[in-house]
Amino acid sequence: MTDTLVIEIAMQSMIVAAKMSAPVLLTALGVGFAISLFQSVTQIQEATLSFVPKAIAIGAALLLTGNWMLREMMTFTVQMFEKIPTLLS
Questions:
Q1: In angstroms, rounded to a whole number, what is the distance separating the alpha carbons of residues 39 and 47?
Q2: Is 57 helix (H, G, I), strand (E, B) or coil?
Q3: 1: DSSP letter
Q4: 54: nearest Cα among 71, 34, 39, 37
Q5: Residue 79: which pLDDT band, with cuts at 50, 70 and 90?
Q6: Are 35 and 49 in contact (CB under 8 A)?
Q7: Which of 18-22, 23-27, 47-51 has the lowest mean pLDDT?
């Protein structure tokens, strides 16, 4: 197993991790920005106001992208298991 192969596997792992976290993080970022904009416009400074919409939006994002995320993870895992014989030699 060469150092190039290790770096390639690490890079693939980080790309998959970024792709898995992107829908949830971007949803939370968008909803958080919208709520903070609403709070600054209306001058309502309630800390709990941002929690419930974020939780609902993240749940919806997981429902919408969960199937894709599962397929991506399964594809990556199968590829890693298929590489095991070449890694051992």
A1: 10
A2: helix
A3: -
A4: 34
A5: very high
A6: yes
A7: 47-51
